[in-house]
Write a structure and sequence with these properties.
The chain has about 80 residues and is an alpha+beta fold. The protein has a single domain, classed as Alpha-Beta Plaits (2-Layer Sandwich), CATH 3.30.70. It contains 2 helices and 5 strands, in the order ββαββαβ. The protein has a 3-stranded antiparallel sheet, with no helix packed on it. Strands 3-4 form a two-stranded antiparallel ribbon. A hairpin with an 8-residue loop joins β3 and β4. The chain starts with a strand and ends in a 5-residue tail after the last strand. Bound molecules: iron/sulfur cluster (2 copies).
Length: about 80
Amino acid sequence: MDRQQVDNAGGGNAAPGTVPGPPRLYIDACQCIGCAVCADVCSYQAMRMEVLQPLPEWDESACVRCGECQEQCPTAAIILSLDCA
Ligand code: SF4
Ligand code: SF4
């Protein structure tokens, strides 16, 4: 599966010399149809999508991992990991 990890400002980037933790939210770029449903259903403004933006943008710091975006995505393009180790 061709997956794209969605990073916010520094959210998915490990510091040099450190081992990155597990990804916390993926959007499968091959499955996403750009419908913006995920942004519409997020009550925390943690998923945003502007006009002409190909993929939604995830704000890790605002996300409470409620899973609503994953549930409502019509193409099952969102994979949310609850393993925050
Ligand atoms: S709801 Fe799913 S298909 Fe629609 S923009 Fe979000 S990730 Fe893409
Ligand atoms: S898991 Fe919940 S809070 Fe996080 S982006 Fe999805 S809908 Fe928003």
